[in-house]
Amino acid sequence: MISAMIFAAGFGTRLKPWTDEHPKALVEVDGVPMLGRVIEKMKAAGVRRIIVNTHHFADQIHEYLRVNDYFGVEINVSHEPALLDTGGGVSNALSRFGIDGPLILHNADILTDFPLASMLTAYEESGCCTQLLVSGRTTSRYLLFDESGVMRGWYNPSTGEVRGPAKEMADRSGLCTLAFGGVHLLNEDTQRRIIGYGQGRGVFSIIDFYIEACAEQQLQAFIPDAPYLWHDVGTSDKLAAARFAWQNKYGAHGV
């Protein structure tokens, strides 16, 4: 069985004033709330159990799920009275609802049309290694990967800071910098490690977990073979760009 978790708890402060009265996960692209788009994407990939974490305007997300009959799948809501960040949210949700096969993680504010089935195929062909969607786009922070596509650390180009196993490498010329895309596929071992990592921490970023975990386990870069749309809808300008790109590719009221 394939499970999934959608991050829908954040305040969305970069998307004000809309998020002064709504959760960011319900912002619309082509008339469809982002949360609904991601859920339908999960369903198309064969996911039948979904966890949605909530905090900011949680009641609106609960009502959206209810009026849509929970999209015909098992949806568990993991409410966070205080925000736990991405890693803490996953650790908390898995502790509550358990591990049941591989777990897809997807930010509710990421609009992308790459086929999740291709990530599942890469997962199986890799021997069930955890997969991280990455690309060569420009960003303020990068993940570092070796020639085999295995994560070796993290890099901040503005400060030169390197974290993870790469920090101890005398020669980093063989490493490439790739931007994380907010979609990941975790094997059961990684899920168990996240639960353990979260004990005593509570609030933590999943990227901090990956930076430490990549010293001991194989975290694999996943780069789709075919071109695809990818947009962060976290600001008004980025949301406008995402809406334009989506309609330009699919037309009004596209998929």
Detailed description of the structure:
The chain is α/β, with parallel strands linked by helices and 255 residues long. It has helices at 34-44, 58-67, 85-97, 116-125, 188-198, 206-213, 236-250, and strands at residues 3-7, 28-29, 32-33, 49-54, 74-79, 103-107, 110-112, 130-135, 142-145, 151-156, 161-163, 176-186, 219-222, 230-232. It has seven helices and 14 strands. The strands form three sheets. Strands 1, 4, 5, 6, 8, 9, 10, 11, 12 and 13 form a ten-stranded mixed beta sheet that branches. Strands 2-3 form a two-stranded antiparallel sheet. Strands 7-14 form a two-stranded antiparallel ribbon. The longest helix is centred in the last third of the chain and has 15 residues, at 236-250. 42% of the residues are buried.
Task: Itemize the secondary structure elements and their pairings.
Blueprint: E1 3-7, E2 28-29, E3 32-33, H1 34-44, E4 49-54, H2 58-67, E5 74-79, H3 85-97, E6 103-107, E7 110-112, H4 116-125, E8 130-135, E9 142-145, E10 151-156, E11 161-163, E12 176-186, H5 188-198, H6 206-213, E13 219-222, E14 230-232, H7 236-250
Parallel strand pairs: 1-4, 1-6, 4-5, 8-13
Antiparallel strand pairs: 2-3, 6-12, 7-14, 8-12, 9-10, 9-12, 10-11
Helix pairs in contact: 3-5, 3-6
Biggest sheet features:
10 strands, mixed
Shape from CA axes?
globular
Number of strands: 14
Report the C-alpha radius of gyration, rounded. Answer: 18 Å
Estimated structural class:
alpha/beta
Distance between the termini: 26 Å
As residue ranges, the low-confidence spans are none
Q: What is the beta-strand fraction? A: 25-35%
**Secondary-structure element order, as H and E?**
EEEHEHEHEEHEEEEEHHEEH
Provide the helix percentage.
25-40%
Count of separate DSSP helical elements: 7
Mean pLDDT: 96
